[in-house]
Amino acid sequence: GSEMCIRDRVLTTGNAFRGALQQLAGQPFRMEPYFDPGVWGGQWMKENFGLDASKENFAWSFDGVPEENSLNLEIGGKTLKVPAQDLVLYAPHELLGERVHGRFGAEFPIRFDLLDTMGGQNLSLQVHPLTEYIYEKFGMPYTQDESYYLLDAAGEAPCVYLGIKAGTKPEEMIDALQTAQNGGKPFPAEKFVNKIPVKKHDHVLIPAGTVHCSGADTMVLEISATPYIFTFKLWDWGRVDLDGKPRPIHLEHGAANIQWYRNTEWVHRNLVNAVAEVYTGENGTVVRTGLHE
Questions:
Q1: Distance of alpha carbon 70 from alpha carbon 28, whole angstroms
Q2: What are the pLDDT digits (tens) for 43-80?
Q3: Each residue of 77-120: pLDDT tens digit?
Q4: What is the CA radius of gyration of the chain?
Q5: Is the pTM of this model over 0.70?
Q6: Do the beta carbons of residue 91 and residue 64 sit within 8 Å?
Q7: What b-and-e string marks burial along 166-198, b requiring 16 or more CB atoms within 10 Å of the CB?
């Protein structure tokens, strides 16, 4: 009964493996995406990507995150599955180029993931650490600056929560979060945080230190510079996770990083649809989006 099954094992020589990684570092490649359910997950990816219909929802797709995705290498007619991170660690100079390697080391600083809340719920209200904070507390040399590109939006009032409402007193908001966290009155998000309506093709920027989350009935392509896992949750709408336990909140870390000057006016001026027209001709318009300082 203790016999091991080895029929799916694939072996290769070290030279063939290193050669494959070296080759990949100099050409376009795709990681194998993976899809995961979540407490706020939706139905869009399931319907549009032909995913397992028996699953209740899919919340995430990681599709360009070496720490999360694998590479499938065809060697000698067999498929060898390896963590994509192997490539980053083995050939960082070739993969990243000198400038990026000089700034980030053997880390792949850009990630792509999808957040599906179509027919689902809001994400947790959250904030990402400032560069100096993540370095001082966690030893990471960079932080999470991200953006949401709306691939789709539906329902009555799709929105993102972004930045602090003008006139908010920091101590009042922190106090309300603390009360909610201790099982008291639920956090009145709309009193303190801007709720911004969104439609398909909108693009919002989320520099570190900005309170944010995507709302229900949105399909978001998240493009960010991201170290592995540093999201400070402030409020999770009173939910429990798929395992029935309350989801972790990181109020102390979060409060230390909220940039209170990013209020209603600042957010609309700097973060919502910062689109610049590059060219207009008879075949259409080319715009540039996604650049913040």
A1: 15
A2: 999 999 999 999 999 999 998 889 889 999 998 889 99
A3: 899 999 999 999 999 999 999 999 998 889 898 888 999 999 99
A4: 21
A5: yes
A6: no
A7: eebeeeebbebbeebbeeeeebebeebbbebeb
